Q: What sequence folds into this?
């Protein structure tokens, strides 16, 4: 007798007959199907992401053959507990079920679903129907007594005793009078006891345990500021130090940022060093690119001497922290020809038949100042471990945020391993993926563990583009693993929109970044000073880029956006709605140059509506059609739109309302919606 | 040194370090990610479905870190071969890849995807770029020589020799002149050899092997006719036999059906037998319901004596087959109180505290003539095996199609096991699921193995309903596992549309069933004779239903639809487009009562456009907007619409065309589209 299913190739499928049973022992019949458990990323291969304090809402399709009552529980386990917790799932429509569990600590949670048909509950339901129809229920009472007695056998201690006495109670009441039997069966204590000791012998459990990576709140809500410390010197032409950088901290903190990201701080190579504006010719004074890492002064665990000492670095980190600025470092795993690895671990690079090391190239372009690490080396284990050691080294210096340079040029397998290794020890470490590459590659990196990711935001300018892209990021399963971090500029990206837009363009892109994204960042002071000179037409490189030279910035310039930035960052902190992305909702309007969107807190206590004029040249106006239900607004009541940018207040009513924005004054409204407007009914004598 | 990923809960995930390797041996680095392989049902838990002669088109998202050239192959294995075959996949846009494999035999195929980065192909691509840019390629030629020499090491025999000589050839040519080196590298033989002996050491294979159930063609394309043999007697009131039934076969075959489905043919219970019109009172003459199976004369493997003997049954089967009618039997796994199982296997039923057997009920309704099998019995193994034995018994009598009664009232696990068991021995057996229940339950039964499924077609009447439902069935992943079989009526279902519509209603529903569905069926002769009397208002039961009594049908009645049915079945056979469902496309028009849709063969050699007037009372007309691209039509050329129902021909041009249908004449057009219309250019002197 072969009761096993025909061999199937899929992983994880359990045979129908448990291996611990003899082949003639009864197979364990399951009655309930559990499918389509959501969220689930790639069949459970990857974890979803949450931050501490959030809920994980889980839905599943659950159904059984026949008409028996189905019970389902959501099971979950926190990182610190061995025990699984259970939460009863609620049946919605169309065989869909739902429950949610809270995540209160950083680390890796697991969840899955268990369900069974409950004979007692089915009996209980049918008993009432039969009694109401005036049918004889004497035999049913005996069936119920049996079911309760069996439950007593599964229970122990006081519960077992109570159940046995309930079994008797039911039988006696039922014998006395059917109505009394039905009343006994409906006693809440009995029902509770029967649920606690349910017969789960036919229970099904979803075949996969799904994971949640729970991070601290900054993973979801953060404002980044990128700065080149070497440009912080007191005068132009003098290489700035960490000490110099300290004096800039109040300026950055006053703008309201909370992450201070430094490009690589390691010794910079000399061989084939690039000159100003990425020139192949390099003068003696040229400082080189911070991403060209490694010299005789050290590699990835060393500090560029011109910036200062490790002690200086730690002092800067500590000063920044006192001002609410957490420091983020760059993980740029590549080497110059002068990097100590080249001598000590030539086997980590690709060696050519003439004994030379392969430099980076994208034929016909050559990058002779960079040797890429060769992950196909036979010494791949050593290489993995060394890069982990480097990461841990900076963690030991107090760093908990890494911006990872070009992760898409190193194997996925490496990142999946590294991030899991680090986060199992330090669940508070955050990794930002700087992968400006194809969409599926970016998503894969996010799936395998990156906490946040750079996006295509910089190149999404029109209403259609922004609506499509941000709907994909915030309203599809992508949001379970991909946390966008929006940058209007970076040292590599001065977009054409900014190049030709002057100050209004920077204001537009800033408001979009800071309100479309709970996490965003700017590369400053270039950004707030509206630096828009490109290397040449058609290029997105900055002219006189800080990547290759020192720059002196006049942060006191009157055209600076620092006040706007400070105001918007304050708005972000004061309005819960702007601290997450999932509620993002676009609202229709009749002008292609006006973008209208909202964010809300789950309970609508915080409701923000943003209107942006995407046209950096002309005043635009139009009629908005707000989706009032998405804002928790009553179509019959007026409401107040309080523009938090200029403190003006508008009284609106219903969906259809007028807006007008002059980009040369302020290209955006950031409205806080106040649902309660005072009326005559607020006077005492109306009460 | 721990290079394993942090423990993950998901099934089937391979550790990064193979267990056969020492922990210090190099880990096997994979470079390529393979994700989103489609089709795939529930993470590979279930097989997709195809019929012999079709293709399985497989897509996947495939990408690697960096810029190396990626190669991918679709791997598949047929039921009769141990060896895996490989087909090179083609890269489309956005990291999507595609390939297809043919399925030529019944049974279970497997498929998966393997991909790797190819150093030789990358080298080859870069060599050309560098040479074109006038760069020195001497060192590159040496790298290429090494790669070819390594490939020779992986090859053997003549290939190894050829590769070694190519390595020399490349080096010598390159030394002579770079251009000659590049030419050598581009030699097709070398490229072919290098592909055959590619270095797959970093290859990734998709973690799941996915399955295809390949059936014979009837699984996709079939026309069913359901008839009660006991009504085939020569006179009213006399119980018909299999012999009587033989005389009806030519009538059924002439209408063009190919499956003859008989309700259960087993002995009918006497205890609590239902009388005419489902009456609780049963007279001595009442014949009972064929679905009330089992009496002292036998159970599921016996034949109702009033129908004849096993020999009669086999003779009927054989006669039917000669006329192109394959016989389908009913698997209705339930018993009357008189079934032999009740005495011999009381433990297969639920026994109540008073020793009686639990009858079927849906409180407060009681079905005392039916004892459901209790799959939660301790003897579940025996029960499974017995039901398999019954199924095999009828297979041995030559039956290869089963219509399964109410599968949703027996455990999913049972059906998954039974169907797998049967099909592993008899891959030509087809199972039709009669589950009129909730959508996810119906889909699950299809996933777990049912070949075809009844649908909600009977209750989809309006343009919106039909468009939505058939788009879901034919244009979403549902189609990979759910094969619809459309029934406008069954002995249980006389829809309100038919009750109140007279003959035009039956014509409308017939044309819809036979053209929306490659598989469909009718319960006759009730259907073709337009029987529309319901038991009572609001009920879908037939008055004087054949489920409970004999009926005499006058199949010669002039109002019969038999000629229309014969014509439509002939059209189905002559037009490939109507023999499958996946090409179904709805076309807009301006009248809510007109439904316009098309089906095409993959190469557009067969193109059918159907127009149905959904209004059974009034003539409707309107303007159609054909989607010409879906029909392979040139918007600049006229085309002929040949109505295969009345042989009329219309000359159309472009998308916008007029139609008008009187339901009392003919409520539908079934157009064959002829793209080529003769013009003056067909005369000799134009050539």
A:
């Amino acid at each position: 007798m072969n009761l096993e299913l025909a061999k199937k190739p899929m992983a994880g499928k359990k045979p129908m007959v448990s291996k611990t049973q003899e082949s003639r022992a009864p197979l364990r019949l399951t009655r309930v199907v559990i499918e389509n458990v959501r969220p689930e990323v790639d069949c459970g291969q990857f974890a979803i992401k949450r931050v501490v304090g959030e809920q994980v809402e889980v839905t599943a399709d659950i159904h059984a053959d026949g008409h028996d009552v189905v019970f389902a529980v959501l099971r979950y386990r926190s990182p610190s507990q061995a025990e699984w917790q259970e939460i009863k799932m609620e049946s919605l429509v169309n065989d869909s079920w739902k429950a949610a569990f809270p995540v209160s600590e950083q680390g890796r949670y697991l969840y899955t679903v268990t369900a069974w048909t409950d004979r007692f509950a089915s009996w209980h339901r049918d008993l009432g129907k039969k009694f109401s129809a005036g049918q004889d229920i004497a035999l049913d009472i005996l069936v119920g007594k049996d079911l309760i007695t069996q439950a007593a056998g599964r229970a122990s201690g006081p519960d077992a005793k109570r159940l046995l006495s309930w079994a008797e109670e039911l039988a006696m009441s039922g014998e006395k009078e059917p109505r009394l039997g039905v009343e006994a069966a409906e006693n809440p204590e009995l029902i509770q006891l029967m649920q606690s000791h349910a017969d789960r012998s036919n229970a099904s459990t979803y075949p996969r345990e799904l994971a949640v990576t729970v991070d601290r709140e900054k993973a979801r809500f953060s404002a980044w500021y990128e700065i080149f410390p070497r440009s912080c010197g007191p005068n132009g032409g003098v290489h700035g130090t960490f000490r110099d950088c300290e004096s800039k901290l109040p300026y950055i903190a006053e703008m309201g940022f909370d992450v201070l990201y430094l490009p690589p701080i390691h010794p910079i190579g000399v061989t084939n060093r690039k000159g100003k504006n990425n020139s192949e010719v390099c003068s003696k004074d040229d400082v080189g690119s911070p991403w060209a890492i490694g010299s005789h002064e050290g590699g990835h665990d060393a500090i560029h001497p011109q910036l200062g000492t490790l002690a200086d670095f730690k002092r800067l980190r500590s000063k920044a922290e006192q001002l609410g600025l957490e420091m983020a470092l760059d993980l740029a795993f590549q080497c110059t020809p002068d990097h100590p690895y080249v001598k000590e671990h030539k086997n980590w690079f690709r060696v050519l038949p003439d004994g030379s090391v392969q430099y980076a190239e994208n034929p016909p372009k050559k990058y002779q100042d960079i040797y890429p690490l060769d992950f196909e080396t036979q010494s791949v284990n050593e290489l993995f471990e060394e890069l982990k050691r480097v990461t841990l080294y900076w963690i030991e210096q107090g760093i908990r945020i890494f911006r990872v340079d070009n992760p898409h040029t190193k194997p996925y397998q490496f990142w999946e391993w590294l991030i899991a290794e680090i986060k199992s020890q330090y669940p508070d470490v955050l990794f930002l993926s700087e992968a400006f590459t194809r969409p599926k590659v970016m998503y894969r990196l996010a799936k395998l563990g990156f906490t946040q990711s750079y996006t295509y935001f910089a190149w999404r300018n029109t209403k259609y583009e922004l609506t499509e892209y941000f709907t994909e990021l915030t309203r599809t399963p992508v949001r379970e693993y991909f946390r966008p971090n929006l940058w209007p500029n970076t040292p590599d990206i001065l977009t054409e929109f900014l190049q030709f837009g002057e100050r209004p363009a920077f204001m537009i892109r800033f408001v979009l970044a800071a309100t479309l994204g709970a996490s965003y960042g700017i590369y400053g002071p270039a950004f707030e000073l509206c630096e828009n000179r490109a290397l040449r037409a058609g290029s997105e490189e900055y002219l006189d880029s800080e990547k290759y030279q020192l720059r002196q910035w006049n942060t006191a310039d009157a055209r600076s956006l620092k006040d706007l930035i400070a105001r918007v960052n304050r708005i972000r902190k004061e309005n819960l709605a702007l601290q997450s992305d999932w509620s993002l909702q676009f609202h229709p309007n009749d002008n292609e140059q006006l973008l209208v969107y909202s964010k809300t807190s789950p309970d609508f206590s915080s409701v923000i509506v943003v209107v942006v004029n995407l046209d950096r040249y002309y005043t635009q106006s139009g009629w908005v059609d707000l989706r009032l239900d998405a804002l928790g607004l009553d179509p019959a009541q007026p409401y107040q739109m309080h523009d938090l940018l200029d403190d003006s207040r508008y009284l609106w009513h219903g969906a259809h309302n007028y807006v007008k924005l002059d980009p040369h004054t302020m290209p955006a409204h950031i409205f806080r919606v106040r649902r309660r407007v005072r009326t005559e009914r607020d006077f005492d004598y109306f009460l």
